[in-house]
Amino acid sequence: MTDSYLTLVNSGLSKNIAKKLGLPRPAILRRYHPGQPLVPGPVLLIGSSAGTEALATELLAWGLDVRRHAGPKDKLGAIIAVLDEVSDPEDLAEPMLAVGSSLRSLLPGGRVVTISRPASTADAPARAAARQGIEGALRSLAHELRGGATGNGILLDDAVDAQAPSALAALRFFLSGRSAYVDGQFVLVGSPQGELPADFDRPLAGQVAVVTGAARGIGAAIAKVLHRDGARVICVDVPAAGEQLVKVSNETGGTALQLDITGETAGQKILDHAHSRYGRLDIVVHNAGITRDKLLANMDEAKWNSVISVNLASQLRINEVLLASELFPQVPQVVSLASTSGIAGNRGQTNYAASKAGVIGMVAASAAAFAERGGTINAVAPGFIETEMTAKIPMATREIARRMLPSLQQGGLPLDVAETISFLVSDAAGGINGQTLRVCGQSLVGA
Amino acid sequence: MAASPDVSAASTDSAAGAGIRKAVVIGGNRIPFARANGAYTNASNQDMLTAALDGLVARFGLQDERIGEVAAGAVLKHSRDFNLTREAVLGSALSPETPVYDLQQACATGLETVMGLANKIKLGQIESGIAGGVDSASDAPIAVSEGLRAVLLELNRAKTLQQKLTAVAKLRPKDLAPNAPGTAEPRTGLSMGEHQALTTAAWNISREAQDELALASHKNLAAAYDRGFFDDLVTPYHGLTRDANLRADTSLEKLGKLGPVFGKSLGDKATMTAGNSTPLTDGASTVLIGSEDYARAHDLPMLADIVDSEAAAVDFVHGKEGLLMAPAYAVPRLLARNNLTFDDFDYFEIHEAFAGTVLCHLAAWESEEFCRNKLGLDKPLGAIDRSKLNVNGSSLAAGHPFAATGGRIVAALAKLLHEKAAAEGNRGRGLISVCAAGGQGVVAILEAR
Amino acid sequence: MSTREAIALPELPSLSKLYVSALSTAARTKLGALERSHALPHVQHTVTDVQVSLEHVTTFQHLLHGTVRDSLPSVFVHSVAFPVVMSVLTRPDFPLPLLGMVHLGNRVRHLRSIDFSEPLAVTAWAENLAGHHAGTCVDVRVDVQAAGENVWEGTSTYLAKGLYVPGLDKASRPERQDFVPPQPTAKWRLGPEAGREYAAVSGDFNPIHLSALSAKILGLKRSIAHGMYLAARVINSVEAVAAEPFAWDIEFAAPVFLPATVALRIEDHEADGRWDSADFTGWGERSHRKHFSGSVRAL
Predict the structure, then answer these.
(1) How far is the C-alpha of A49 from the C-alpha of A156, rounded, in Å?
(2) Which residues contact B41 (CB under 8 A, 6 or more apart)?
(3) CB C247 within 8 A of CB C296
(4) Superfamily assignment of A208-439 in CATH?
(5) Prior bond to C245 cis, omega within 30?
(6) How far is A347 from A293, CA to CA, in rounded Å?
(7) Which partner from A316, B1, B187, C50 sits 20 to 30 angstroms from A230, CA to CA?
(8) Is it the case that chain B and chain A have 3 or more CB pairs lying under 8 Å apart?
(9) Do C266 and B194 touch (CB under 8 A)?
(10) In a domain, B385, yes or no
(11) Which helix (H) or strand (E) holds C139?
(12) Residues near A17 by Cβ (< 8 Å), separated by ≥ 6?
C-alpha cells in the first residue's frame, strides 16, 4: 500500500510547489534497519537527578555522543529529559525550557524522550501535578516537532530506576527507528524485571513466537520483524488464507499452522504445535482481527458477534489455555492488537471498538496473572495503517485520516506496528506489563 | 576436488549393513482438487506441484532444507516437463541441492512414489523424502498429428533447401489437426469408463449401490472438512479452499436422476453415471516421509509406519479380467506376506476411480468362486466393514487428478490412524488400494504411530 | 491333376500397372473384344529374391497398431505377396473380372518366424472356382518360401458378384443368422482416411477403399475399409500371445463403411494351461452388423 502523496511532496519540483501552496508536507520517517546508528546525531541529556548521571554512563556505553549542554550550532539526534525527581510544578520550567531551546537543533528523524514518574493518588498533590504536567507538556511538544521527529515519554514506577532493563529498552526503542510512527506516547515501566539482549539487533534470538492472522497485512509484517529480530515464527491463520500463509511462512523460515482461532481447541493446538515442533513458546501475538462495520442502528447479531468472537473472545480463551498449561515452565510474553478506535471510538464501528477497547481492558486485567508465571501481556493500538483493509476506505476519509489527524501527517506502515510489538515481546521489556501502547503518529483521536 | 563437508550423514551413519529400518509418514500437503477447466485452468503441472511443495515446506518448516530425495510425477505430461519434479523443487522453498526423480505409474504414480522413497529410507539410503504427484486435465499436452510430427522431424533432419521443400510437401491438411489425449487404453481403444462398465455389469453391481457409495463419499468428505480434518492437510490455491467437485448437498434422488455415461451399449445394464464416476480433475499432493531418526531429530510428528506394498497387473486386453481389477490380486498377496486378514484393519482406503470399481473389488473378495479360481485361496477373503471404508471421502467426491491421488490418500490415512491411536491408545492399520490404467494396481499397508 | 505351368516373373509387378491392365481388360471384355474364359488358368506365378524393407514394415506396423520387430507380421507377408496374387487375377485368361470382386476371407498358416532380411520366394495361383449363391468364388493360394522351405501359406477367397460361370452349380443361400453382439473387449475408431492410409502401405489401391467419390463410381455409398486392414489389426491384437507357428482365418461379413466405430471381441482359450487359440468377432458399434469373425490358433 503506497502513499503516493508522500512520495510526491518529497521530490523535486512538486516538493517546491507543495511548499508554496502550504500543503502538509509529511516527512519520510526514519525507520530501523539492523546495524544503523541508534540516533542520527549527538544526544543532549537534560536533568540533574542521580538517575541522570547513571543514565549518562549507560548512553556512553552504547557509544552515543552525549552532551550535557547544547552548543549554539550543535545539530542534535535526540534530547532526553530526565525528570524523575520533580516534586513541584515549579520544577518543570527549567528542564522544559532547556528542551525547548534545543528543539530547533533537532535533526530530521530526531527524538525527544522524557523520563519521569507516573502521577498517583498516593502522591502529594503538588508532586502528582508536576508528574502529570509532564505528560501534557510532552504531548504538546510532540505536536510541534517536524521532519519526522517524535516525542515520547517513559514513566518509571517508584520502585524502578532509570537503568532498569525495561527503562533502557524503552529508551532505546524510542530513540531508534523502530518507534518511527510512535509519537506523543508514554510507556510505563512497572517493575525492574527484564533482561537486556546480548545483541540489540537480534533481541529475540532463539525464541519461538506465535502470530495469529499472519497471512497478510500487519500480521505478515509482525512475522517478518520477529523473524528478523531472531525468533522462529509459527504463522497462524484461518485455513482459507492458507495460500498467503505459506508465502509468509516460507519467507520467514517459520511454520504454517492453519487454524480457526475461534475454535474451542485453538489454544491447545497452538501450544501442542509449539511444544512438539519447537519445545518452547516465548511469544504470542494476538493479531487476528476482522471488521464488520455498520452503524449501530443497522447492526445485526451476526456482525456484532463475529467481531467480538474473533477480536476478543478468542484471545480470552487462548490466554486462559496459556495460563493453565503446564507444557512450558513460563507463560509467554503476549501482545494483543487493540486499535485507536477502541480508545476514541469510530462511527460505524461500535462492535469493532467494543472488541478493541475490550482488549485494552483484558491486558490490564491479565497482567498480574501473566507476571506471576513469568510472562507479560500488553496491547498495541495502531492508528491509521496503510494496509489492504484501510485501502478500502473512501479516498476523502482516508486522506483526512492520513494527513490531518496524526501529527506525523501520514499513515503508518504495518512494519511500524510490528516494530513496537517486537519491542514489547522482548525479554528486555519484561518490566512492561498490562500497558497499551499506541502506534498512531500522534493521531488527534483519543488521547 | 575435496569432498564437501556437507556429504550426507545418511551414507555414513546408517547405511549399508544397518538392515531394514522403519519409514514413517510425517505429514502431507495438497492443494484442493479442481474440476477440469475450473479454478486451475491456466495452472501447469509445475505450478501446482510447486504450490503443494511450498505448502508442505511451510507446514513443516523445511525452508532451504536439503531433503534426501523428492519423487513425484504426472500422468499427463508435456514434453517440456521432462524434469517436472526437479523444476518444481527449484521453484520451491526447498534447498536447490535437493535431488529428485520423476516417476510414472498411471494412477498409482502417487502411491508408488511414497513406496519407492520409503524403501530407500528403510534401506538407509536416505533419511527424508517427499513423495508427490500432480495432474492437469485442463492444461493437458496436445500432440501434433503423426503426419505433422513426421514432417517436422524430417524437416529438422533436412540439410538442403531441396530436402526441406520435399519434407514440407508431404504435409496434408488433415495433419494440422492436433491429437488431444484421451483416457482410452491404447490396446483396446476403450476408455477407462467403458472398461469399468463391462466389469461392473459382469459383477452385477446395481446402480443404487453405486449411487450410495458416491453419496457416502460426498457426505464423508464434507464432514471431514467441516470438522477441520483437512486444516493441516490442504492448503488453498487459486482461490479454492475445498475440493471443487465436492457436493455436500447431493442426495440419492439427485444422483438417481443422472443418465448413464459409460457402457451405453449395455442398454438396461448401463449403470455408470457422471455421479458415480470420477470427473477429470486438476490438482497436486505431497507427502513428507522420513526415518524415525530424522523425525525425532527435527521434532517432526510420526503419524504412521509405511509397512509394505504390493503391485499387481491383470490381463485385461482380451477381457480375461477387468481393467481396474489388479488390486483385487495385489491385496491377498500383500495380506499373505504380512500374515494379516481384513479383520486386522481399522480403515480401508479404496480409490474410487468409479463407484463400480470399489464395489467390484468388495464383491470379488467376498466371492468364493473368484477367491478360489482367480486367487487360489481356500475361502473368500471376506467382507469389508463399510463403516471402515473411505471414512473421510475418496475420489468420487474429492476428484482424481491421476498422479495426485496416492499422496492424498497416504497423508489423510496416516493422520486418521494417528488420531485414532492417540485417542484409543492402539496401533491400528489401514489398507490402501489404488487401481491404475494398463490393468495395474498398487496396494499398501500403513500402521498407526 | 497335372502340374501347373510355372511362370517366373522377373520382379514384383507394379500394382498400379496391374490395375490399369485390369481396367483395360474389363473395357475390352465389355466391348466384346475379349472373350472371357470359363476355367482357371493352369499356371502359377513366382517371384524370387523378394526383399522386404524394414522401413516398409515399420510404416505398416505403426499404422496397424502393431509392434515393430525384426520378424514379419503375418498380414504384412500377405501384402508382400499381393502383387503376385494380382498378377494372376489380372491375367487376360482369368475367368473372373477383378474389379468389383469381393474379398470373402483368408486362411493363413504362418509356419515360422520370418526375419525381415530373408529373401523370399512368393508363388501364387488360383484354384477352386466354385458356385456361390451370389456369383462365383475362387481361392487364391500363396506359398511364401525362405531358404527353400514354406514359411507362410495363405488362401484368399474372392467372390465375383453376379457372375455365374457356365458349368458351375449355384450354391443355395445359407440361412441368415441373427447376430447378437457380445461384450466388446476393444473398440476401433476408423476415420475416413483409413482406406487411403492402408492403400499407401499395402499397395492395394482399389478405388472402393480410397474415397467416398471413387467408391460411389463403383456403386458403393461410401468407401470401405480393406479387409486386410481389419485382419492386420486383429492379428496384431493377438500377436502378443500367439507365437509362430500359428494359423489364422478371417471371414468378412458386412463391409465397414468409413468412417466407422468397430467394436471387437477377442476371446482367448487355453489348453493345458497354455494359450491355445483366440476367437474374434468385429461388428458395428452402433449398427450391430457383423463385419468379420475368425480365429487364431497355435499350430
Answers:
(1) 14
(2) B138, B139, B282
(3) yes
(4) NAD(P)-binding Rossmann-like Domain (3.40.50.720)
(5) yes
(6) 9
(7) A316
(8) yes
(9) no
(10) yes
(11) strand C135-146
(12) none
* Count, residues in chain A: 447
- Per CATH, the homologous superfamily of domain A39-189 is NAD(P)-binding Rossmann-like Domain (3.40.50.720)
Look up the ipTM and state it: 0.86
First CA to last CA across chain B, in angstroms? 44
Answer yes or no: do C237 and B187 touch at CB < 8 A: yes
CA-nearest of B37, B397, B71 to B230 is: B397
Secondary structure letter of residue B212 according to DSSP: H
pTM (two decimals):
0.88
For chain A, what are the domain ranges?
1-30, 39-189, 208-439
Q: Does B188 touch chain C (CB under 8 A)?
A: yes
Rounded distance, CA A266 to CA B173, Å?
Answer: 64
Mean pLDDT of chain A: 92
CA distance B201 to B189: 19
Contact (Cβ atoms closer than 8 angstroms) between residue A102 and residue A64: no
Give me the amino acid identity at A372.
E
CB within 8 A of B238, min separation 6: which ones?
A243, B31, B34, B39, B40, B43
CB B51 within 8 Å of CB B315 = no
Q: What is the dihedral of CA A188, A189, A194, A196, to 10 degrees?
A: 90
Backbone angles phi, psi at C131, to 5 degrees: -75, 150
Q: Cell 492395394 belongs to which residue?
A: C204
* Single-letter amino acid, residue A73: K
Q: Give the range of the structural domain holding residue B430, as residue numbers without chain letter.
A: 192-228+306-448
List, by residue number, the catalytic residues of B. Answer: 107, 400, 435
B270: which 3 cell numbers? 448401463
Quick one: cell of A350?
A: 461500535
pLDDT digits (tens, 9 = 90+) for A182-217: 999 999 999 999 999 999 999 999 999 999 999 999
- C-alpha cell, A220: 505478515
Amino acid at C177: Q
Which chains are within 8 Å of C by 3+ CB pairs? B
Residue of higher predicted confidence among C273 and B31: B31
